[in-house]
Specification:
single chain; mainly alpha; Sufe protein. Chain: A; two-stranded antiparallel ribbon; 7 helices
């Protein structure tokens, strides 16, 4: 599945839910399904700046793809993390850089999240794209 396919699936999953309390419940459920991040990656250098709650983002580059792992100490944010991992993990840097997280607006997250959560979500996306940019440059330099 492409990044766009996954985003479309997320949009469809959320569009069938009218009540925002139910959407928050789905986010919490998605977050609870996340594998816990290895404690050795819960270090300051992996913290996302700009998030009100604590979000740790770890990445590894293998076989041309970036694998992200992440965790948050807040339930709803953990669900947002789960969505981003579903979309961007195990992708090439060019796939990540070539896509915008349109699901954020299409499912209404920007309007229904608090400003600090919304800023945190955008900070997570930005950090993932920065890693992708760095790995893309590193890959082109090595070729």
């Amino acid at each position: 599945m492409t990044i766009d396919d996954i985003q479309q699936q997320i949009i469809e999953d959320f569009s069938g839910i009218e009540d925002w309390m139910d959407k928050y419940s789905l986010l919490i459920e998605l977050g609870n399904e996340l594998e816990p991040l290895d404690p050795k990656y819960k270090v300051d250098s992996n913290l996302i700046r700009g998030c009100q709650s604590r979000v740790w983002l770890h990445q590894e580059f293998a076989e041309g793809k970036i694998v992200f792992e992440a965790e948050s100490d807040a339930l709803i944010v953990k669900g947002l993390v789960a969505l981003l991992l579903k979309i961007y993990s195990d992708r090439t840097p060019s796939e990540i850089l070539g896509s915008e997280p349109r699901f954020i607006d299409e499912i209404g997250l920007r309007q229904h999240l608090s400003p600090t959560r919304s800023n945190g979500l955008l900070a997570m996306v930005k950090q993932m794209k920065l890693y992708a940019l760095a790995y893309e440059k590193l890959s082109s330099k090595n070729n």
